[in-house]
Amino acid sequence: MLSPQAIEKIDYELTKYPADQRIAAVMSALRIVQTERGWLSKESITDVAQYLRIPEIAALEVAGFYNMYDLSPVGQYKITVCTNISCMLRDSDEIVDHLKEKLGVGFNEVTADGKFCLKEGECMGACGGAPLMTVNNHTMHEFLTPEKVDAILEELK
Amino acid sequence: MTTPTTAAASTPMNSYEAGKPVMTDLNGQTLLCLRTLAEENPASLETYIKLGGYSALKRIVSEKTKATDIITQVKTSGLRGRGGAGFPTGLKWSFMPRYFDGVKYLVCNSDEGEPGTFKDRDIIRYNPHQLIEGMAIAAYTLGARVGYNYIHGEIWQDYEIFEAALHEAKAAGYLGENLFGTNFCFDLYAVHGYGAYICGEETALIESIEGKKGQPRFKPPFPASYGVFGKPTNVNNTESYASIPWIMQHGGEAFAALGVPNSGGTKLFSVSGHVGKPGNYEVKMGTPFTELLEMAGGVWKGRKLKAVIPGGPSTPVMPASAIMGATMDYEGLSKARSSLGAGSMIVMDETTCMVKALHRLSYFFYEESCGQCTPCREGTGWVYRVITRIVNGKGKMEDLDLLTDVSNNISGRTICALGEAAATPVLSFIKHFRPEFEYYIQHGKSMVESQNDAVVDGKAEPK
Description:
Chain A has helices at about 5-15, 25-35, 40-50, 55-65, 85-90, 90-105, 145-155, and strands at about 75-80, 115-120, 135, 140. Chain A is of the alpha+beta class. Chain A has a 4-stranded mixed sheet, with helices on one face. In chain A, a hairpin with a 3-residue loop joins β3 (about 135) and β4 (about 140). In chain B, a hairpin with a 5-residue loop joins β7 and β8.
């Protein structure tokens, strides 16, 4: 069951499309539900599909195609570090190594306390601020240094 | 209203401070798409109106300017698609059917995901209203009733700035029904991607708006006849739309005169990598590369320039010697055997290992191939595995010809341009830096890093 808050948000997204194109809101609906629940379980995808009155496979297909949807748990905070060329040139490797050491996990792993998950990201279109990372998809941190990463982690603890 | 406080602005390396651009970085720039940048609250409606914003839209709609006259101005301006392809915008507009019984759509492609490209982000967060006005003028001209701005999901905070600007514009009577007391109606919405480079391809983007996987469509039919929900659709890049209000305010000729022949106007260059002040720089088309590099703080740490990817990885890499004399415009860069692309300049200094740089790029294209066409799906993986083998010290000399051969067989054999985009870095890196690849294969390690290590050991510098 979707929460009343999620339904309200999805209904707003539906106003952007013709009435007979409810499927168009699937990108937003999955994002809304993922933000609320942390990741997209099979049940979450079913909930979205039922609300939009689309086949479950259509929702699953979209959830599986786009990188920012998570089909398995990612802890409380998902940290995605861009390692693409512009970030790499400004030493994103140092940031990745630092995060791995600090959190004690590798890419795609969740810390034992369920708090953090580390992901390798592709270009986020903000290369002027390299190296950079996002926390839970929606908060970007730019011009990273190991010290700045420490400060961010401290705040999330 | 949202002021752009999202530009994480605490370190001195940042070009922007507390959401407000630092004035010194504007030196030498010609601010047109980013004309609000020198103001206190660049993204606010108030600021935009103070600078003459929405006046062109109001005049055009109130005076019922003929669509053909507007298209003529856009053609005269020499504006070419700023997303990378460089197709003349006025000509593209003329492909939209004039008479169509139903809703026509307008789409803005703000799905920047090609490494090194981040110019549209600054238009969205620092001057959203100019983009809205540009889209509204385009909608009036092309008879589009509904518009979508597709913004990639990674810049979520900027997506929210744009949504706020849309509500503000609607409340002020610049979007919605019966604008300026006429029968012109235009609804504009923000929609978002969620992590797929391929959606920057216009038909994949349309699929994504429709709530599907972003897999490109066969063309023809082109979006002008079969676009969003199967209806005629005009797709332009953010910077292209944002140029329109200025063109309609000052005339196509004035815009053309800012640039050089065949490259009208100004261009936003996203400068990233090994420079002192990475960021966006809006300059006149035809600006010498050396001037742009200087504006961006020059090569960092006093090092020497090695190579530049001038327009994003889908444009051929250029050794320093080839780009030093080039001018930044369509013809300037094609004469220098590369291309302007989206103006995404990735600067690499002398310490860059080209084998490892290509290794990272090849992973990107492998990861982002949508999987629809076999040559791209299989070819990008093949290329990545061969370069990985080289990086791991297990490369063979024949691998270089193999890489060239595989890349040539991806290029031109796919539905969309990602195939070519994936082949270009491989072919150009090997062409210009072959000795580095050969060294890596022979010695099992990087030529550049070996040299750097020698320097570091000699001077006992911390690494």
